[in-house]
Specification:
Length: 258
């Protein structure tokens, strides 16, 4: 049996489809009442899981977990005749996402990078890109934590329409604003000249682009340890007759190599 793995566009599309149970619940609840809304919400979640399996010939763990959560919380809401449990489901799912992002942001475990390999294959990432992802994950952690709090609050105190918007549409709006802002920042940073720091006793380097064109200058303290600042360099290795390499002893007064 052949297995079709979802690509990036499929992942986004399927995530959007995963919000269908929320809106199905709202529509059925308005037309036929709360019990009918819960039943339709549960049924639409099951249908989505079946669609995913038929489409990709595999059971995705997240989709399975999401469907089970719909069934369990929706079932509890039906038994207790209280829709709040079903409405808390998006907040619980996003809370798990907050935990994963937090692990990546505040520990040495690059869990988001590992998860991306599952869907997008091996992605070459240099230290600068890894550092940028870590900074972005810290921003996402606090934004998603706030959004999760809004979902839970709206489930208890606001209308179903407001809850549905916060759980669905607002999520996409937030992500769009973050990534558009990140794209603008990176474009600005790429084209902005390097601003040198004033330090009369420090060595300076020419900064070049990928093609070797000089685009600015920066002091040694800025260049070393920053993969984004490329500079011309020559490495000279000296060996003796026995093939042993000579090492340069660093001065005790220098905090940077050599």
């Amino acid at each position: 049996m052949s297995i079709n793995r979802p690509n990036r566009n499929e992942i986004l599309k399927n995530f959007a489809i995963g919000l269908v149970p929320l809106f199905a619940f709202i529509l059925a609840d308005e037309l036929y009442g709360t019990k009918a809304g819960l039943l339709v919400g549960i049924l639409s979640g099951v249908v989505y899981a079946l669609y995913y399996y038929i489409r990709f010939r595999q059971i995705e763990k997240f989709v399975l977990f999401d469907t089970l959560l719909i069934i369990v919380l929706g079932g509890i809401s039906l038994l207790l005749n209280d829709e709040i449990f079903f409405k808390l489901k998006p907040g619980l799912v996003e809370l798990i996402l907050v935990l994963l992002v937090g692990i990546h942001a505040f520990s040495d475990k690059p869990i988001l990078s590992l998860m991306s390999k599952r869907y997008m294959g091996e992605i070459a990432m240099n230290p600068a890109q890894a550092g940028l992802l870590k900074k972005l994950s810290r921003l996402l952690f606090f934004v998603l934590l706030l959004h999760t709090g809004l979902i839970i609050y709206s489930a208890w105190f606001w209308s179903k329409e407001v809850w549905a918007f916060i759980s669905g549409g607002l999520f996409y709006i937030i992500f769009a604003l973050i990534f558009i802002g990140q794209w603008i920042y990176l474009r600005w940073k790429k084209h902005s000249p390097v601003q040198p720091r004033t330090n009369s006793g420090e060595e300076w380097f020419d900064i070049v682009d990928e093609h070797g064109k000089i685009v600015g200058r920066a002091p040694r303290s800025e260049v070393h340890g920053n993969p984004q600042l490329l500079h011309p360099t020559v490495h000279l290795h000296i060996f003796n007759r026995r093939g042993q390499i000579f090492l340069q002893k660093r001065s005790d007064k220098k905090d940077l190599n050599p």
